[in-house]
Amino acid sequence: MTAATTPAGRLLALGRAEATLLRRNRTAMFMALALPLVLVASMRSVLDAAAERTPGLDVNANLVVGSMGVVLLIVVYCNLTSAYTARRSDLVLKRLRTGEATDAEILLGTAVPSIGLALTQCLLLGVGGALLLGLPAPVNPLLLVAGLALTTALLTGLAALSSAVTKTVETAGITTLPLLLVAQLGSGLMLPLESLPDSVANVCRLLPTTPALQLLRIGWFGTDGSGPAEGFAGTWSQGATPLLLAVAWTAVAAWAGRRWFRWEPRR
Q1: Sign of torsion, CA 40 162 81 174?
Q2: What's the CA gap between 141 and 12, in Å, rounded?
Q3: Is 239 within 8 Å of 252 (Cβ atoms)?
């Protein structure tokens, strides 16, 4: 059996092909590389304003974790929704289904470049935050990695689901906007949850993207901002509820994405 006929070999082959298409698409590259930086730059002023209303708000911690969340949303969710829609319209996905690759391999293979690019940017943000802002080392790296993994898996499923209602690449910016706004405003990226009224913050913690993103902050800083920082052992109890919710939302997104994904072009 050759490497290309194994699931891993097929995923890598699909990922390389998608990476080539991504590099040739200047709009997609701008969305993946430049747009997150523009939004991250605007976050500082928003967080500084929130800190004036919320004594004790850790601006630097929110800035780095929020920046990672913005990168994941744009590079994985928005970019991948456009990629699925474009490949479907070009009949690429339909042709791939006639080969050895399974449906899951096709969807994951298409997502590999976006996920890899997003995680690389998150790594650079983390290193930059540690060096430039003097942030401490992660308290619980396992929860931090779990948060990254669950966020990318969740957003991949949501991208597949969003592409089902996206007719063309041009309309992807419209169909992805609702989730993008809800995640930025309700998941603690632009507006830290601790700066919101308790009743609103409790509802926001149940949103699909919030639990996985909370794990990033708990894993790095030992707290989600609602209480004092914990050590390695304490973060497991604090992160238990977000972890369970993140797994549940990810499973729902994966099921819904597979269930309603459209392989034929929308007419």
Answers
A1: negative
A2: 27
A3: no
